[in-house]
Amino acid sequence: PAAQQGIRFCIFMLLQTYTGVDTRLNIGPKGFTGEKYGGVTYWDTEAYCLPFYMATAGQAVARELLVYRYNQLDKAIENAAKLGFRDGAALYPMVTINGEECHNEWEITFEEIHRNGAIAYAIHNYIRYTGDEGYLADCGLEVLVGIARFWAQRITWSEARRKYVLLGVTGPNEYENNVNNNWYTSYIACWSMRYAARAARWVRENRPADYARICAKRAFDEAAETAVWHRIADNMYLGEDRELGIFLQQDGYLDKEQTLVADLDPAERPINQKWSWDRILRSCFIKQADVLQGLYFFGEEFDLDTLRRNFYFYEPRTVHESSLSPCVHAVLAVRLGDLEKAVEMYLRTARLDLDDYNREVAEGCHVTSMAGSWLSVVEGFGGMCVRDGVLSFDPRLPETWESLSFKVNFRGRVLTVKVTRTAVEVSNEGDPVEIALCGRRVLVEEKVIMNSES
Q1: Active site residue: 46, 174, 321, 379, which one?
Q2: Is the pTM of this model over 0.85?
Q3: pLDDT tens-digit readout, 292-303
Q4: Which parts of 57-168 fold into alpha helices (H)?
Q5: Which site from 55, 237, 356, 384 is most exposed, i.e. has the minimal number of CB atoms within 10 Å?
Q6: Distances (CA, A) of 28 to 22, 36, 51, 346
Q7: Nearest to 308 by CA among 295, 326, 322, 321
Q8: Whether the Cβ atoms of residue 416 and residue 405 lie closer than 8 Å to each other
């Protein structure tokens, strides 16, 4: 009952928050439930909210979230120019209403630049799910080029390492400021440049008139610029500790005293209310998924052993003092088969406001965490993903749940997934569609049932 109440509450709030009727509007972290954050837009929209609206409200509504950023591209270029970047490099703001940066803390505004990567990833995620590759020609390529130009100028060459490095950044873990070579930021920067190059090739080959328009409008020299992007991405320094088999959150992370969250005195929690910032910054404690954010986004690029080593190293050091943290860990825990940890993390995100876990619900509800709760159910326990254009489900049912069911809108079809102890059933309202179910390709015309024995 607690799990059911939590997700129903979250879905209700999400459907109240955004309808996609006006591209000037976006999603504030508190929605309309409180005045904290002033209704501004964060990277939370692209990283957490977009999948919910893609799969429940449909392609047109989700597209509006991307068009919102396209409409603010020139402002993002202006924001980058204020920091000394040139030639159409774009830095999207951390916090905004109209495209201008509204945040006032330098370690966030100037250094938490991974938000650019989330916007590029959202374009990829949207196209992967909807199949709307035409969006690249309509809007997406221009955004991707601006973002790739920013990364190419922000990354520098290190003679000492004989590698490209990314200095002076703040990763998703805001309990570490002004660090060098944050693994997640470096990884998504390289991915963004490679994706921009692929997008340029697709538009050139499939929409030549739009390609010519974009090249003229943005002074884009594909051959010259993509060669630079590939050279940087292919020679980027990405820290790892081979002995532990983990990616390094950033340079020097292992120099910190490696205390676990389980060793903390509960009276000192949350540390962001009990400790000085000096003490927090010197500790190994992690506010939210950082390395693991990358393994969530790009899971198909890493094997389960890599995920397992990183998860069981970083999660015990994570205090989950961001509302965005538990859902990522819930999805990853399901992938690892750790359903007990997954349920713990799911309940923490789905009931965050109902139980007033952080004793701050008077400031408003955590709308983007609510989207993460849906991700925990559908991408986590439901095992939903899209690979090579095929929608896939590989569900895992926790021992404490009798069954699980949800609906998704996939390319004009409404699919209902029901999971019990003995079977997985997928029914289809729409044209026949091929999906992958528990590792097997099946054609769903009206209904497919796969028994657990099969």
Answers
A1: 174
A2: yes
A3: 999 999 999 999
A4: 59-71, 73-82, 106-109, 114-130, 134-135, 141-154
A5: 356
A6: 15, 9, 16, 22
A7: 295
A8: yes
